[in-house]
Write a structure and sequence with these properties.
alpha+beta; 60s Ribosomal Protein L30, Chain: A; 2 domains; 7 helices; 66% helix; elongated
């Protein structure tokens, strides 16, 4: 065998060995790269899982706290429920014991409704009578100046306001002859209503009264009221048991005392038709069986 023949197998062996090693290397490198990617992915997954684990732990703590609170609420509701059941049992006992009384109370509702309706009818009747009285008074007085005599109904009460210039001279309490005409017309209407009771009130302005006979406006207002009452009794025959006299002095003004017109408005005699309360008291009395 010559040298050439020996060299060819040797070179072929080296070449084959070299080719096989390179191929394995590339395969190993490829597997390494895959493992490296897998490792990186696994590490990322682990990190994500750790974050999720922390979040779940926090959520678990919140849920455990909620469960604790809910258990407390359940205990509270159970206690209230027990108490409510006890109260219902007590109520049932009370209701059973007083059922007859409640039944009677319900039966009385109809009677009470009738009673209220009767009161309302009486009030309506009273208002109608008041309006009729006002119309009669205005018809009797005629076309007198509204500033000198005013007749009205306020809150179910009839008022007759007569200016003092129709009844008295300035600072005096003797009734003038002119006043007899006015009072005579009013008295004629009141006399036709024998059940009516009324009060005569004297009113002044705020100018201090200066006289040696009377002390002040209190005295003057009372004197004027009694003078009118006395005339209604003595000259026109009105029942004295149906009348009262009162002095209001300057303390119930209708207008501002700072003006001349206001003072003139406040100087007045007022006849107040008193409500017939005895009729309403009779309605309040229990009905006899």
């Amino acid at each position: 065998m010559n040298f050439k023949q020996m060299l060819i197998p040797a070179v072929s062996t080296v070449f084959l060995f070299s080719c096989v090693s390179q191929k394995k290397y590339k395969e190993a490198q490829a597997r390494y790269d895959v493992c490296n990617v897998t490792l990186t992915t696994a590490q990322s997954t682990i990190s994500t899982c750790n974050d999720e684990k922390s979040a779940l732990l926090r959520q678990k703590g919140i849920l455990e706290n909620d469960v604790t609170n809910l258990n407390r609420q359940i205990d509270f509701l159970r206690q209230n429920n027990t108490q409510a059941l006890k109260q219902l049992e007590d109520l049932s006992v009370i209701t059973g014991a007083q059922a007859e009384s409640i039944k009677k109370s319900l039966e009385n509702i109809g009677a009470k409704d009738t009673y209220i309706q009767t009161l309302q009818q009486q009030m309506a009747r009273k208002d109608s009578l008041n309006m009729a009285l006002v119309m009669n008074l205005k018809g009797a007085v005629g076309n007198m100046n509204d500033q000198d005599i005013n007749i009205k109904v306020d809150k179910g009460v009839v008022y007759i306001d007569i200016s003092d210039k129709l009844l008295f001279k300035s600072g005096k309490y003797e009734v003038t002859d002119q006043a007899k005409t006015v009072l005579g017309k009013v008295a004629a209407v009141l006399k036709n209503q024998p059940d009516i009771e009324f009060m005569v009130e004297g009113h002044t302005d705020n100018v201090p009264y200066r006289s040696g006979i009377l002390m002040d406006n209190w005295d003057l207002s009372v004197k004027r009221a009694t003078a009118v009452v006395r005339m209604l009794q003595n000259q026109y025959g009105l029942d004295p048991t149906k009348m009262a006299a009162a002095g209001r002095s300057e303390y119930k003004p209708l207008s501002d005392n700072g003006t001349t017109e206001g003072k003139a408005t406040n100087r007045r005699t007022r006849i107040v038709i008193l409500p017939m309360l005895d009729q309403f008291f009779k309605l309040l009395e229990p009905t006899k069986a």
